[in-house]
Amino acid sequence: MASGTFEKTSLSWQLQQLSQQVGEWLEGLLPRNASAPTSDIPQLPEWLLEGLFWLMVIAAIVWAGWQLYRLLGPYLAEFWQVEQVDDRTGVTPSPQHTVAEWLQQARLAQQQGDYQTACRALYMASLQQLNDRGILVQQLSRTDGEYLDFLQLQNLPRPYQVLIQTHERLWFDQVTASADTYERCWQAYQEIERS
Question: Cα-flanking dihedrals φ and ψ of residue 145, to 5°?
Answer without folding.
Answer: -60, -40
